[in-house]
Fold these 4 entries.
Entry 1:
Amino acid sequence: MSRSVLVTGGNRGIGLAIARAFAEAGDKVAITYRSGEPPAGFLAVKCDITDPEQVEQAYKEIEEKQGAVEVLVANAGITRDQLLMRMSEEDFSAVLDTNLTGTFRVVKRANRAMLRARKGRIVLISSVVGLMGAAGQANYAASKAALVGFARSLARELGSRNITVNVVAPGFVDTDMTRVLSDEQREGIVKQVPLARYAQPEEVAASVRFLASDEAAYITGAVIPVDGGLGMGH
């Protein structure tokens, strides 16, 4: 059965791979984006998740055109890397407002219809950095670690309504964001990964789609690492 799916930040990288995975499975897929031209084949809604009014308007458009959101993938996020001594208040708060509070906004809005329907799937995209930390990424790591506590609290709160809430924590993924690194930087990263390679976005998407499937109906509050073994034990 075709479901109404929303992937925030679904215009590139991991988000786009996730959107494509659901579309290939026959679901109706909406994506949010902030700038540029969105990819074809989806209901593309311009939305900055740091603005509550834009989030509300995005949901209204999605509900009108493809129905209430039954599967939410909260993927939109930003980085503003800097050593703590040089990190500004604005750099810290901007990352938290997008990655954590922005996720709160989109999940809360989706929850309204899911509660009425007594079913739903919510998947939050965290990061291996949120589990093991990274120098120069205190703001990003804090925001991504917080998603775990947020998801597990909601898993307990919403489980009786047949709504599951899970987290996928990717490691280093071969996207535009990581391709800007030098060969030396990329080589240094790969040396830390037991599987000795970057992930492909489609590998992350496969785990997300599984968590939203009937096969994962009894999985909630889980953190699924897709990191080649980099963060094992966390």
Note: Residues 130 and 141 are 4 Å apart (CA to CA).
Entry 2:
Amino acid sequence: MVAGGLRVLFCGINPGLLSAATGHHFARPGNRFWPVLHLSGFTPRRLAPQEQEELLRYGLGITNVVARATARADELGAEEFREGGRLLTAKVERLRPEWLAVVGVTAYRTAFASRSDLHAMLAA
């Protein structure tokens, strides 16, 4: 769910098992992403995971740091996060979103050696 010219690229940690099975980001019932996205003013109404394609209409995209699906994010290794960080860096450099919003501070800290690495990538 990415394209060039996005206002915001949201980046989750990795897909959960239900998200992998359905092909929809943040698909687990009760996940707070979709309600918070609307309540924060990014979308005019609350979208359901199966409506994720509509994000592009609002200049929004969604991806993950790590592509491998797991039941819990703590099943991922540090090297997977670092490799995901490298791939995400390349994606952001290619797509040039105005903002990158990483959902999950642990993923952010592990995927990027320092905040300055990510800031330099976004400023370039």
Note: The chain has five helices and three strands.
Entry 3:
Amino acid sequence: MTRDIIYNAFTHVTLSHQSHGQWRRPEASDQRNFSKLEPWVRLAQTAERGKLDAIFFADTVGVYDTYEGSRNASVREGMQFPSNDPASLISALGYVTEHLGFIVTSSIIQEHPFSFARKFSTLDHLTNGRIGWNIVTSYLQNAARNFGYSELERHDDRYQWAEEYTEVAYKLWEASWEDDAVVADTSQGRYAAPEKVHAIHHQGKRYRVEGPHLPQPSPQRTPILAQAGTSGAGREFAARHAELTFLPAFTPESAQRDIAAINHLLPQYGRRRGDLKFLTMIHPVIGSTEAEARVKHEEFLHWRSEPAYLAHLSGSIGFDLSSIDPDTPLKDIKTDAIQGNILAAIDAEPDKTARFGDVIRRRLNKAFAGTPERIADEIERWTNAGIDGFNLVPVVTPDWFATFVDEVAPVLRQRGLMKSEYRPGTLREKIFGGASFLPDRHIARSFRSTGADLI
């Protein structure tokens, strides 16, 4: 029996997203042409040919400038810089595909929720309901400064901000137009019933939004909602809002613990198991044989940019990793500033005499090499632990995805680990089955129109 596993092409409209340094390869000309439309069209068509669920567009609205106290490494190495707006691609990619979804990252700091909600409703219309929103609160200080803030708010305060931001968006998407507001009566010259279109009159700590929502209801009303974060506040936010949550787990066992913790929270918000699907990242280097996989992995290591990885990781954790001598034994590291994945890596290392640099290098690169059969084994290992899907990290975009589609996907299908056809309907229907709209138990649906303006 085929299992309902999600596969997303994980990418970023930039030179180097996760596989840092690989853009320098002679065969990476399409990746170097990331500012052109044609490589993205090829990626979308390849992903749909392979029956992937979506392209998951990561994004940042700032530059990583923590490593060595400047942005120099990021700029020099092309590490998520330069970076273009992913939402600008969606109309074109939606036009050349029929089923593929598009999950787009948009931070609460980068756009007013009124204009954001309008943009995503428009994209949902243009793609016939294939849009998702990856909700992020941003973690780069440069991103905050780019939008006029002196610094980022504290971690948990940003989640409070996200609560109001999503509330405004939900009111616009769910409450502003009644389901039957559009009548399109040409004989009477009456397109919409005024009494069925409502203002939202939101008044909160940050936003004052009158409404109504300018677009009419899109196929999904509210797009698929994605999120990442395993802090306490992040887990609570996922349990309350997300339909897909991205776990930065190192092992299936750690993913299993995260899944159990978040599932435990769902009933507090009137939700149940299955309402939230859990994704992780997988980064395989694909070889037709084990020998070829080893050669390709050596090539991967040859092109890898360690400064770019360190710049990426330093910005992600908010700590300059260049400030610790890589030859320092783990037992001698006394700083309290290191946290998250790096702290977990240090704590998990059995040999405390191991050098910090060696441990970081192992953690910098989650890529592993293998045949299609080995990759299928790894996917099965994670799904047996409760993972519902994968953000697939390429070596080089878009060519790596063609290899995955042509060599790995057939093996996955033979094992019942990948679908052969898309479900009909919107992205929500394809992933969850059932209805195009969110289920009534989701917080967004509590804002549905009552037949009057919200007050």
Note: The longest strand covers residues 6-12.
Entry 4:
Amino acid sequence: MTKGETYYHLYSATMDPCSMVNDEYEKARLTWLCVGCMTPKNIAVPIDAQIEEKLPADPPLNFINGCGLGLVRASFLAALGPAVISRDLLIGRLLGPDGALVDDWVTFRGRYRVLVRGSKNISYRRCTDCGRHVYFAMGKRYLYPQPPDDAEVFESDLLGLVVRGDVFSRLALATWPKIQLDKLGVPTAPKDSLGPLL
């Protein structure tokens, strides 16, 4: 690992993701959802979504199955501070099956999206529609290359949040038993032989 920043990957322990309402899913396929990799296109806009469930399970993090869109409790994000949230994240509205706002839940995207990489059982391709890196690996997790210096919170490709160590200390994780955590270093070279993947 290089000297410098340590990062933490926060993601849901849930095995109970949300599902998008069918009509809204079809609209997403025509607008913001890349059908080549089933993740949001590389456009820097917040995304509103309507789910079939009244409330996401297992707070504070969850996601919508089949479209790569993360969900988070707004009260959990608040610990980051409004300046960090407005600078580093794109926050959208989450609607329930009746079209009403889901209390204290929002969608999120990062100004920057980072790949959480591994060292074995590596699967990789480049999406032919949007150009995004589609990556999966097991083994010890890490970041490579180091994320940009002008942000403290990032969207992970695994539907979670990556936060710098100094930001991590602001989060009261003990109150959220359904959150998973990985401490991430930044090695001098990737352990998957794939280069920087920028």
Note: Residues 22-30 form the longest helix (9 residues).
